[in-house]
Amino acid sequence: MTEASPERANMGFIALIVFVATIGGFLFGFDSGVINGTVDGLQQAFDSTAIGTGFNVASMLLGCAIGAFIAGRLSDIMGRRNVLLVAAVFFIVSAWGSGIATSSPEFVFYRFLGGMAVGAASVLAPAYISEVTPASLRGRMSSIQQVMIITGLTAAFLSNYLLAGTAGGSTREFWLGYEAWRWMFWIELIPATLFLVALLLIPESPRYLVLKRRREKAERVLTQLFGTEVARRKVVEISESIAKDHQPRLSDLIDRGSGRVRPIVWAGIGLAVFQQLVGINVVFYYGAVLWQSVGFTENDALLINVVSGALSILACLAAIALIDRIGRRPLLLIGSAGMAVTLGLMAAAFLTGAIGPGGTLVMSDAAGTLALVSANIYVIFFNFSWGPVMWVMLGEMFPNQIRGSGLAVSGFAQWFSNFGITMTFPIMLATIGLTGAYGFYALSALVSFFFVRAMVHETRGRELEEMPG
Predict the structure, then answer these.
(1) What CA–CA distances, in Å, run from 417 to 153, 235, 273?
(2) Nearest CA among 380, 350, 343, 344 for reference residue 368
(3) pLDDT value at position 43?
(4) DSSP secondary structure of 407-429
(5) How far apart, in whole angstroms, are the C-alpha atoms of residue 121 and residue 10?
(6) 63: closest CA among 22, 103, 122?
(7) DSSP H stretches of helix in 75-188
(8) Cβ atoms within 10 A of the Cβ of 5, count?
(9) What are the Cα distances from residue 211, in Å, to 135, 234, 236, 364?
């Protein structure tokens, strides 16, 4: 196999592509995190019940599941970049509509559109990056996606905090007579528009071009990336790694010999599902509500989210430094073990609390400190491991012939699991309490450790054309 080494690569051009693709990651994070500070505003504006509010929050995730599935398949038909262009338009429409919505159905519609954009960006940005970077740098380059996701989350948390603080609360009137929570959504119009324009500056994935039998154009892109000599050999290798008798299709996920779903597909689905079963998005989507339930003010709760976001970025940077040195699998194992312990400590801390006036959880100072510290260490472990590594592996682990289809089913599984966790958290909170909920997430983290040991194989340093199917 021809290795596209960094020494022969046009790193400036590759850096531009990575930057543009990961703006999608920023929007993924911002769109996911912005809802965190708007829950009170949604309840007041739409007079919704707890279940209704839960669906308003989680409605985006149904769009994410469908968007990830459609985008994965559509990327084999339209191209990686073209699908991302459609996603950019959806981000813009969703940001505007979510802020202007006057009813729950209208709000759900616009959040669903935004969810489709998030789903598309979540699976295509790391896949696109993996298809244009040298194998020896692919983990680091693809991990930047997670840094941008967390940067987007942190930017949303900070924006929410500043807007709510300036207005005197998320439900208070801000500029032009609109409440602050509406402006929390409209801020997203700035990066969404930048994403749309910037995508016009980068080329289509060369592996997609070969899939569509556009070899000359693929060679031109590869020449820009790695030089003439490497480009010619790469086109041949990519061509040899795909089926000659048909274009990629969903049925390729089934092994022709055994008639069963390929093990690599189950590994991808498992990675996607376990990333959500550890409960990370409960912290992202319900962080402000969670910390208010244990006695913090709305302002303090929003500030805690900002701190968590900053710690997450530092953890992602550590992952970037190590992912191409020690590999993907060791980081996943470390993360599973660390999350199991910290989630267990959070469950134990919540067990000591008692329900006080207004249904809030009252905890001792020691238990509250333990919960807060454990939560932030848990976030660090997640973003050091499963946060970036899952997306890196989904973008690179599938052979060229089934990459789009593999991303479609794995991405759908990831976002459907996300929806399930988000929708069930308020129910779990009302039935088995925080201790039961976090006990379940801790158990899931423990099981994920053994799943990685049994099902996940290392991909560090391997060319995409070498990935086994």
Answers:
(1) 20, 37, 6
(2) 350
(3) 61
(4) HHHHHHHHHHHHHHHHHHHHHHH
(5) 24
(6) 122
(7) 80-100, 104-130, 135-167, 180-186
(8) 13
(9) 20, 13, 12, 60
97 and 110 Cβ atoms separated by less than 8 Å:
yes
pLDDT digits (tens, 9 = 90+) for 118-171: 999 888 888 888 888 887 788 888 888 888 888 888 888 788 888 877 777 666
CA–CA separation, 464 vs 300, rounded Å?
Answer: 46
Instruction: Look at residue 177 and give its three-state secondary structure.
Output: helix
At 361, is the secondary structure helix, strand, or coil?
strand
Domain ranges of the chain: 9-202+260-456, 206-245
Beta bridge partners of 362: 354
In this prediction, residue 193 carries a pLDDT of 95
Burial degree of 228 (CB within 10 A; 0-12, 13-18, 19+): exposed
DSSP code for 169: S
Q: What is the structure's pLDDT at 191? A: 93
Sequence-distant (6+) residues with CB within 8 A of 361 are 293, 294, 295, 350, 353, 354, 355, 434
Grade residue 57 by pLDDT with cuts at 50, 70 and 90. low
Q: The tokens of 439 are what?
A: 């006990």
6: which DSSP letter? G
Q: Is 170 exposed, middle or buried (0-12, 13-18, 19+ CB in 10 A)?
A: buried
Cβ proximity of 84 and 22 under 8 Å? no
pLDDT at 158: 83
Q: What is the pLDDT of residue 75?
A: 87
If you average pLDDT over residues 254-267, what whole number do you get? 86
Give dist(CA 188, CA 193) in Å, integer: 9
Is 266 within 8 Å of 456 (Cβ atoms)? no
pTM over 0.70: yes
Q: Where are the alpha helices (DSSP H) in 168-297?
A: 180-186, 189-199, 206-211, 215-226, 228-240, 263-277, 280-293
CATH code linked to domain 9-202+260-456: 1.20.1250.20
Q: Torsions phi, psi of 223, nearest 5?
A: -65, -40
CA angle 49, 55, 57 (to 5 degrees): 105
Q: Are 274 and 451 in contact (CB under 8 A)?
A: yes
Q: Cα dist. 202→199, 227, 284, 344 in Å? A: 6, 17, 31, 45
Spatial contact of 157 and 302, defined as CB atoms under 8 Å apart: yes
